[in-house]
Amino acid sequence: MDFATPAELSPIPHAEAPRDCPLCPRLVAFREQCRFEHPYWWNAPVPAFGDPAAWLAIVGLAPGKHGANRTGRPFTGDFAGQLLYATLARFGLSTGTFGAERDDGLRLTGAIILNAVKCLPPANKPDPGEIANCRGFLEASLAALPSVRVIVALGQIAHVAASRALGLKPSAAKFAHSAEHVAADGRILLSSYHCSRYNQNTRRLDAAMFESVFERAVRLGKPTGLEN
């Protein structure tokens, strides 16, 4: 079955990994297993989704097996995306209706979603080498987004990856929910607990906590004159 390449679906094509990215042998093997078991799924590095003129970049961990790895769009098709996309809509950062499929017509305005790791990791746990291998794509993505003023990292792994991509030392830029750090170039890193099903079910994160991070992001970075 023929699929588009990540670059063909991305608002920042030159920052994307190739469809058959070879950098991480463990992830390549898992990707090939998924392609065999689910030949009609996306099963490839997941491209960025959103507005190439975004002022806000959201950095997630990695594709979920039944979410982005299936649909080819970040946070689409799994539980975590329900809260994320509802929150983006609440703050006027999307148009259309989230339907949990790539062709649902949803568009982001002023925001873009990236991942610390482009490919599906077994058990949703990338190893340090895989995170390091993908850092170049995250750095290239941020470099391709000159209007980004604020980065919201979802979870500790995304926080550390974003910190390094921004030139911050993770030992100094500690992760915590609602943590805030400023890079040398003035971009601001905000962090949140990940909107995973586990975090929501255990009440480590609720909608109000999650929305408070985005409310802060809007206050810090939304260009003046733009209305929701």
Kindly summarize this structure in a few lines.
This protein is α/β, with parallel strands linked by helices and 228 residues long. The chain has eight helices and eight strands; from the N terminus they run ααββααβββαβαββαα. The strands form two sheets. A six-stranded mixed beta sheet has the order 1-5-2-6-8-7, with helices on both faces.
CATH class: Alpha Beta
Helix content: 25-40%
Outline type:
globular
DSSP E strands, number: 8
Q: Secondary-structure element sequence?
A: HHEEHHEEEHEHEEHH
Radius of gyration: 16 Å
Q: Low-confidence spans: pLDDT under 50, at least 5 residues? A: none
CATH H-level superfamily: Uracil-DNA glycosylase-like domain
With strands numbered from the N-terminus, the spatial order across the biggest sheet is 1-5-2-6-8-7
Tell me about this structure.
This protein is α/β, with parallel strands linked by helices and 228 residues long. It has a single domain (20-221), classed as Uracil-DNA Glycosylase, subunit E, CATH 3.40.470.10. Helices cover 35% and strands 13% of the residues. It has helices at residues 6-9, 25-37, 68-71, 79-90, 128-143, 156-165, 197-201, 207-221, and strands at residues 49-50, 56-60, 94-95, 107-108, 111-115, 150-154, 180-182, 188-192. The strands form 2 sheets. A 6-stranded mixed sheet has the order 1-5-2-6-8-7, sandwiched between helices. A hairpin with a 5-residue loop joins strand 7 (180-182) and strand 8 (188-192).
